[in-house]
């Protein structure tokens, strides 16, 4: 619509009004399509985030296993320090 006319449709042909309506419908469709694309992208990013969280879970399990191994090695070192004459005892107890 031309600027300065406001909402006054006098003197505007019905064909012109139909064209304006079609343009508005087209713009609305574009906005709706954009919204769908954004929602799809959000879903992809959330799925990726969940996948990354699973990687974090793996890291946590790995760190727990390392901590257990450290404790085990520290216990073996204590045994060696208590009985230095039998240094191979820690290997035989495995």
UniProtKB/TrEMBL annotation:
Domain of life: Eukaryota
InterPro entries xref list: DUF4600
Name by which UniProt lists this protein: Coiled-coil domain containing 169
Organism: Canis lupus familiaris (Dog)
Pfam families: DUF4600
